[in-house]
Amino acid sequence: MITVKSKILKKYRKSGTNWYRYRVFLTGEPNELSNIKLVKYYLHESFANPIHVSSDRDSNFDIKLRGWGEYLIKIEIIDKLGNSFHGEYWLDLGFGFEKDKKTYPGKIKIT
Q: Is 16 helix (H, G, I), strand (E, B) or coil?
């Protein structure tokens, strides 16, 4: 089972609003991660570039972003055979949206 996770790297204030620098990445068994070719992250539509792609296995296919709010990230994992697997992950910045975190836990089964 592949799991999508995030980590806050920095919190700061800009124009009176809390902003966050964070990374989103995959975790899983090494044999599962080694079969992944790339990961597409579909961010909130308010981003200037809402689609990010990572093929960096060494960073667990991470992306680094800046933002001020929590939102649903859609994920597409492409394996080395060209198969596509989909999941959804609620970006948790500590705002307390427990229902959304439970509804979109970021678990993706790759078979």
A: coil
The tens digit of pLDDT for each residue in 46-91 reads 999 999 999 999 999 999 999 999 999 999 999 999 999 999 999 9
CA distances to 1, 12, 22, 88, 90 from 99, rounded to whole Å, are: 22, 26, 21, 14, 10
**Neighbouring residues of 63: CB distance < 8 A, sequence distance ≥ 6:** 23, 24, 25, 41, 52, 54
**How many residues does this entry show for the chain?**
111
- What fold does the segment set 2-108 form as a domain? Immunoglobulin-like (2.60.40)
| Helix or strand (DSSP H, E) at 18 | strand 17-27
